[in-house]
Each structure stands twice: as structure tokens, then as C-alpha cells.
């Protein structure tokens, strides 16, 4: 490579003959430098204002690209673009598509979501070494539903049998491991989901991550390999990793719209800070199977997971069981929906499945997820906003983002589970809000507000938000 050198500095003034000789000897360098200065001035003062005025945010992207081209060799830039195009084709061929129920507007949001960081926190349990091949297939199938441009990195906590890092990488990508996408948080001989939830909560509690979103998944069925666990695992993973949940959690500030347009979008869009395939408000607020996506600014308000199970011991209504309250091993499933600021949304529009395992859709593979939840004839969309996995345009009403709970109290009570225990009431929800987060209906200690009924008359509580889902749900 030839590098143009600058002329040596001379003392001034020079005679006209000396100046002529100087220019003649160094003319090539002077011409090159002059052209470079002209180009920089042209970009800065002529092109930038035009792009910004006529193309808005797209113009800024074009300008950024032009400015980057000043630092990157043209040949290298071309090779990079070719590699990106080839990688997109490989992703489309090798990875099952991300599960969606999108319309064209959501596809536009999908390109914005690439700016949004959605980390996955995965709780992996392996009982013994003989289970490794089965659990490897189980986990790889789950993560094949993610969009690698959005859902990254993957933070993994392992429990039970120890596996090395290479084996863990193969769980995520098979034989095509990308180690920079996998972060191993730690290994424990014994434990439960609260270990991974503690890491997720710690991540969201950091100021720099408050505008992020997270997905929580686990290897459901790794301990008990039943058909019901397989169905529930696929059912929940499809929602947690869906483009619909990602769009629902996307902060309006990242969409690049004007303030007026953002206000319009805020009125049109669903209120959502926790998204899952199904949110169930009874017998306690939860997602059966415990897989979901959530905004970090909400998660940071939750009770610390490692202390949550102990705290729930203070809430023990007479005649109830731990499963009906969300205590003991059911605490992890209850945790994410406990704060009064929760704005749940879900996707599954059918009343067939409400909670637990009753009437789950018949899912045994990712192919079944495509066929049953998103319609077998879904159009695969690989437009310029696509992620290479093939996002599906909406062709089935089965999976549709909506504020939750989407059905009334009578519908959810039809299962008969935890019936007559007294936990599926407004009174119980208000009392739990006081025990966990110091909220009552009106900020007082009155019994009808969820307080202790006068045991602490001097105490001032926080007031339950007017937007809390329970006001409407328990209205009757």
C-alpha cells in the first residue's frame, strides 16, 4: 500500500521561483489533500442537511453509512455486505422461523426491535448424564424459535449434572455454536428457578439496563418427560420468543416517531410490561409453566427473588394450599406478576386453555407450533425488515397480542381449581400487595382496602394504581 507523505515544513516567505518548484515537486500530494478537504466539506454542509430534511431517520442512517465509508476501505465494505447477505440466507435455511402473528406494521417495528436488547435467561436442569442427549434436543428446539438478531445473549444457569462449556454451546446451536452468544452464569448441584430469576432481576436492576427487555425460559420436561410438559414447553416458548411480545414491550421512544405520533401510538397500543402466551389471574396471578418476556423497568420493581419465597410465608390465607397461593415451589411461577404496577398481556385467544395443563393444544414439535398456533398456510416474509428467519404475516387469529386477563372471572373460575379457598378474590390480591409491596387500595390500613384493619393506623401505604388489572377483573 502506498501512503502519500506530506511535504516537509519550510520557512516563509518563499520567492516565487521557490514556490513554483515546491508546487511542481509536491503537486500530487497537494491535489489529493485538496480533494479530500472538498469531499469532507461537501458531505458536511451540502449532503447532511438534505438527507436529514428529506429522509428523516433514514437520512441519518445513510449519512452514518457515508461517514463510515471514510474509515473503511471500499473493498472491505463490499466484502462485509456480501458476507451479511450470505449469512442472512444461511439463517433462513438453517433456523426455523421466529414464531409470529405479525401484520405489516409489526414488521416495521421488527426493524426497530433490532435496536432493542432482549437477553434470554435460561434455567437448565439435568438430572443425570443419561438425560443429556434428550435435554440437548429439547433446549435446541426451544431456542430455534428465537430471533438471533433480537434475542441475544443467552445467560444460562445450570443445575444438577455438570456439563462442560462445549457441550453447553451445542445445546444452544447444535454443531454451529457461536460462543459469544452464550454466557454461563454458574452451576449448582441443587436449586430451583429462583436462581436464574435472581440473575435476571439483578441484570434489570442496573440503571444501564432499565430500558432493555428480558425473556425467561427453562427446560420444562427435563425432570419429568411427559407429553403434557412437552406441550406446555412449546406453547410457552412460542409466546415468550414471539415478535408480538417483542413489539408489545418495545418502548415508544425507540420507534423514531415524532412526539405527537408517539402519543397516538401510546393510545392505540396495548399496555404491556409482561408478555406470555397465557396470563392467568387465578388462583393467583401467574403464567402456568413460567416462561415470559418482560420489560426491565418493571422487573426492577419486583421483590428480590432470593428473598421472595421467604416473604410469601407472611401471606397464608386460612384454608388455602401453597399451590393456590403461589408459595413454596410455586413461588417462582407467581413472582413476575406480583407487583401492582404489572401490565400483563398475552397471545392465546382461545378459551380452551386457561391455566394448569387442562386442554393444552396438541403440540409435539416446532412444526406443530407453526401449524396449530400460526396457521399452516402462513406466508413466509423475508422482506428488507425481516430477520432472515422468515417472519410470518398474520394468517390465524389464534395468537393475537391483547391486554390481559382477556377473559372474565367466570370463565377462569370454570376450571374449578382452588375453588372455595377464598384466594381468587379482590380482598386476597389487595392483602398480598400490602404484604409484598406496602400497597393498599387507598393508602390506609383499613381492612376493606387490604390493610390490617387497624393494627397499624399510623402507617401510610402506597396507593394501588388505577390501571391495575384487578380493578376491572374483580369488579363484579
TrEMBL record:
Presence of keyword Transmembrane helix: yes
Low complexity: compositionally biased ranges: 97-112
Transmembrane segment boundaries: 27-51
Composition skew (Basic and acidic residues), residue ranges: 87-96
Disordered: region residues: 72-112
Keywords: Membrane, Transmembrane, Transmembrane helix
Protein name: Uncharacterized protein
Provenance organism: Pseudo-nitzschia australis
Amino acid at each position: 500500500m502506498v501512503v502519500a507523505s506530506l511535504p516537509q515544513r519550510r520557512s516563509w516567505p518563499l520567492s516565487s521561483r521557490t514556490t513554483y518548484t515546491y508546487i511542481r515537486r509536491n503537486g500530487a500530494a497537494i491535489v489529493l489533500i485538496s480533494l479530500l478537504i472538498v469531499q469532507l466539506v461537501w458531505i458536511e454542509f451540502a449532503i447532511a442537511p438534505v438527507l436529514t430534511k428529506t429522509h428523516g431517520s433514514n437520512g441519518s442512517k445513510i449519512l452514518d453509512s457515508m461517514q463510515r465509508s471514510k474509515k473503511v476501505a471500499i473493498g472491505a465494505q463490499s466484502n462485509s455486505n456480501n458476507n451479511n447477505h450470505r449469512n442472512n440466507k444461511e439463517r433462513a435455511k438453517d433456523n426455523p422461523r421466529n414464531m409470529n402473528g405479525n401484520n405489516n406494521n409489526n414488521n416495521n417495528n421488527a426493524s426497530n426491535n433490532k435496536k432493542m436488547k432482549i437477553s434470554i435467561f435460561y434455567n437448565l436442569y439435568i438430572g443425570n448424564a443419561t438425560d443429556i442427549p434428550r435435554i440437548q434436543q429439547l433446549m435446541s428446539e426451544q431456542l430455534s424459535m428465537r430471533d438471533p438478531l433480537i434475542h441475544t445473549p443467552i445467560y444460562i444457569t445450570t443445575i444438577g449434572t455438570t456439563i462442560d462449556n462445549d457441550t453447553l454451546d451445542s445445546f444452544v446451536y447444535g454443531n454451529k455454536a457461536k460462543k459469544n452468544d452464550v454466557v454461563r452464569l454458574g452451576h449448582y448441584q441443587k436449586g430451583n428457578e429462583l436462581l436464574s430469576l435472581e440473575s435476571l432481576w439483578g441484570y434489570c436492576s442496573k440503571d444501564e439496563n432499565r430500558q432493555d427487555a428480558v425473556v425467561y425460559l427453562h427446560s420444562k420436561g427435563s425432570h419429568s418427560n411427559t407429553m403434557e410438559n412437552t406441550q406446555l414447553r412449546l406453547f410457552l416458548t412460542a409466546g415468550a420468543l414471539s415478535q408480538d411480545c417483542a413489539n408489545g414491550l418495545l418502548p415508544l421512544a425507540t420507534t423514531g416517531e415524532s412526539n405527537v405520533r408517539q402519543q397516538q401510538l401510546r393510545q392505540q397500543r396495548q399496555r404491556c410490561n409482561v408478555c406470555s402466551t397465557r396470563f392467568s389471574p387465578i388462583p393467583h396471578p401467574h403464567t402456568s409453566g413460567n416462561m415470559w418476556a418482560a420489560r426491565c423497568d418493571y422487573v426492577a420493581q419486583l421483590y428480590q427473588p432470593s428473598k421472595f419465597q421467604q416473604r410469601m410465608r407472611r401471606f397464608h390465607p386460612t384454608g388455602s394450599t401453597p399451590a393456590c397461593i403461589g408459595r413454596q415451589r410455586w413461588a417462582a411461577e407467581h413472582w413476575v406478576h406480583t407487583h401492582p404496577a404489572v401490565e400483563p398481556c398475552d397471545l392465546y385467544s382461545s378459551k380452551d386453555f386457561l391455566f394448569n395443563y387442562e386442554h393444552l393444544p396438541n403440540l409435539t414439535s416446532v412444526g406443530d407450533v407453526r401449524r396449530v398456533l400460526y396457521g399452516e398456510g402462513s406466508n413466509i416474509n423475508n422482506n428488507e425488515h425481516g430477520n432472515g428467519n422468515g417472519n410470518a404475516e398474520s394468517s390465524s387469529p389464534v395468537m393475537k397480542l391483547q391486554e390481559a386477563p382477556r377473559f372474565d372471572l367466570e370463565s377462569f373460575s370454570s376450571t374449578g381449581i382452588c375453588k372455595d379457598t377464598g384466594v381468587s378474590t379482590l380482598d386476597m390480591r389487595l392483602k398480598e400487595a400490602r404484604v409484598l409491596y406496602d400497597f393498599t387500595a387507598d393508602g390506609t390500613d383499613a381492612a376493606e382496602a387490604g390493610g390490617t384493619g387497624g393494627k397499624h393506623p399510623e402507617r401510610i401505604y402506597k396507593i394501588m394504581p388505577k390501571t391495575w388489572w384487578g380493578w376491572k377483573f374483580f369488579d363484579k
